[in-house]
């Protein structure tokens, strides 16, 4: 059997749905107490502390 090509709208829908699923997977993989939690002494925490001090 020959492979049928998807029409442009269907290709776009397939691609969009795939991207939405990938985004949701990335957004929900951080849990409290897991190894992916942000360390206290990481650079982002230091930057936030400096910005908070400057904002006062």
From TrEMBL:
Biased composition (Basic residues): 1-15
Region of interest called Disordered, as start-end residue ranges on this chain: 1-21
Name under which the protein is recorded: Spore protein
Organism: Pedobacter zeae
């Amino acid at each position: 059997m020959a492979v049928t090509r998807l029409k442009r709208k269907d290709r776009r829908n397939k691609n969009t749905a795939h991207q939405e699923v990938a985004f949701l997977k990335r957004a929900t993989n951080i849990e409290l107490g897991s190894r992916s939690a942000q360390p206290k002494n990481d650079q982002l925490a230091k930057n936030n502390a400096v910005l908070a001090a400057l904002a006062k």
